[in-house]
Amino acid sequence: MIAVSRRAEQVRIALLAGDVLREFWIWDRARPDGVGDVYTGRVEAVMPALAGRFVELGGVSGFLPDSAGGKTLPEGSFATFIVTRAAQGDKGPRLAAAGGTPADRPGLLRRGPGPLLDLCARHPAEPVLLDDYALIAELRPALEGRMRFDAAAFDAVLEDEVAGLSELSAPLPLGAVMHITPAPAATLIDLDAKAASGVSALALNTTILPEIARQIVLRNLSGGILIDFAGMKSSARAKLAAPLRTALAADPLKPELLGFSHLGFAELTRRRIRPPLHEVLPR
Question: N or C: which end of the chain has fewer CB within 10 A?
Fold first, then answer.
């Protein structure tokens, strides 16, 4: 089920499997993240050292990698582009060549679908519960037959779990806790055994892996991710590689486990597309 709750221009979106929250997104209609937007752009600088081009989109500059259709576009040329990654941190949006006929000046041609329609497309069999009639009417052309009004689309239990996502820590099974420290270059996840007792460090870390993977998805942690496991010697942490890959397998962005650092951190890379939740939620 997909539950949707609107408050003014902010729309909260939850994917539920039974009572388990699997994905959570915020759609800020006043300030959309831009993923899927199509622009006319002008190539303003060719950057061989970066294997790409900077593109003026009309008030904002995006980056077009050579591998995304940039190789044949000289400086000053006009073309149409689609945003493949939202602006995040101090970096502008990532672009790909979109084909089609550009306008005569840089600017937005059409908005992308936004996270709600994107989620609905990825889960076409899921019913959609919404607590706002105006939003139902607006979405009817795309979601006719799937939507149902429910004033309690976000019930008290879901509200409590969503509220917890604003914290940079999360409870884990067996009394463990994960602490999240975002940085521009990577995100560190530090695992604290806390009250966990009576189990080996290997058993503890193996047990909590599925919840760690779920929290990564809920919070949309992306880019480089380092996990510092609890209570295990660096030399023993490689035993967690197979169960960690299994836990990550359900992630729609298919993160890759690169291995373990000399300090024993598990090193993951997860595609950056939409901004992570900690950049979207007010703090």
Answer: C
**If phi over 0 gives left and psi between -120 and 50 gives alpha, with beta otherwise, what is residue 118?**
alpha
Q: Minimal CA–CA distance to 129: which of 109, 110, 150?
A: 150
Fold held by 38-110: OB fold (Dihydrolipoamide Acetyltransferase, E2P) (2.40.50)
Question: Domain limits of the chain?
Answer: 2-32+113-158, 38-110, 168-280
CA gyration radius, the chain = 21
- CB-based burial label for 207 (10 Å; 0-12, 13-18, 19+): middle
SS3 for 268?
Answer: strand
Which residues, given as ranges, of the chain have pLDDT below 50? none
Distance from C-alpha of 242 to C-alpha of 246, rounded to nearest angstrom: 6
Q: What local confidence, expressed as pLDDT, does residue 89 receive?
A: 75
What is residue 282's predicted lDDT score, i.e. its pLDDT?
64
- Reported pTM: 0.91
